[in-house]
Specification:
The chain has 7 helices and no strands. It is mainly α.
């Protein structure tokens, strides 16, 4: 079972992860499972589940599963816990590189012209 299939449901109910029969198979890489275990040991179940679900969602949303797993592995090897806010910042796009999109509103009169043209086409058929 891939976490990609259930991540949206888990985001709504992260505590469902706690008793999920296929939970260990859900983690895409061993680092995610180890992070979950470390979080469970350090925090209440609710906080641990919410944090690991958000880490899985980050991997899913940003397409950074391998890179995030490597970062989790390094963090755990140092004896530290994953810091969700810092990981979100690290794997978020650089605002300076985001494209600027300008949307020009359409004049309502142009729709009238389309309707008039459609009626003229129907009359010729």
């Amino acid at each position: 079972m891939s976490y990609h299939h259930v991540i949206h449901s888990l985001r709504k109910k992260p505590m469902a992860l706690l008793n999920l029969v296929y939970r260990d198979k859900l983690f895409p890489r061993p680092a995610f499972r180890r992070a979950y275990e470390a979080l469970c040991a350090a925090f209440p179940e609710r906080q641990a589940c919410k944090t690991i679900v958000e880490l899985l969602a980050l991997a899913h949303d940003r397409g950074c599963e391998a890179e995030l797993a490597a970062e989790l592995e390094q963090t755990l090897q140092k004896g530290e816990l994953p810091q969700l806010a810092a990981l979100r910042m690290r794997f978020s796009p650089d605002p300076a590189q985001l494209p600027v999109i300008t949307v020009t509103p359409v004049q309502l009169g142009s729709y009238e012209a389309l309707i008039d043209n459609a009626h003229m086409l129907e009359a010729h058929v």
